[in-house]
Prior knowledge:
By secondary structure, the chain is mostly helical. It has helices at 20-42, 44-50, 67-89, 93-115, 123-142, and strands at residues 52-53, 56-57. Strand 1 (52-53) and strand 2 (56-57) form a beta hairpin. Helix 1 crosses helix 2, helix 1 packs across helix 5 and helix 4 runs antiparallel to helix 5 (123-142).
Amino acid sequence: xxxxxxxxxxxxxxxxxxxxxxxxxxxxxxxxxxxxxxxxxxxxxxxxxxxxxxxxxxxxxxxxxxxxxxxxxxxxxxxxxxxxxxxxxxxxxxxxxxxxxxxxxxxxxxxxxxxxxxxxxxxxxxxxxxxxxxxxxxxxxxxxxxxxxxxxx
Length: 153
């Protein structure tokens, strides 16, 4: 059906099946969002002083403490994480793709900033940070990988 000028969009897929890659990406995103979001929002000074703890102390190397900025960062992670929990409960391919857009956009932009601001870090911190951010960004991409349809080989 058309409105005279443009064809009507195809109906959105409402397939509630979830692929293994999508589920793993969503769970990984939720875990990251919970850890980073809670840590940054609830304990901003501790986040600044020691994130990511086992891999180094990346935030404090990048400028003076700013509680507002760190709490906003935590709130953003918590918002993405809560949307992801909702996606886990109300499964649909449209929802997973929307979450994929949000997580991938954030992941690419976050990665792009950090990959161009490495001079103040040790080589091991540079490698650790870029690796972690690349893997986190790939979780967003994983949300786009829908399950195989039965009968396809």
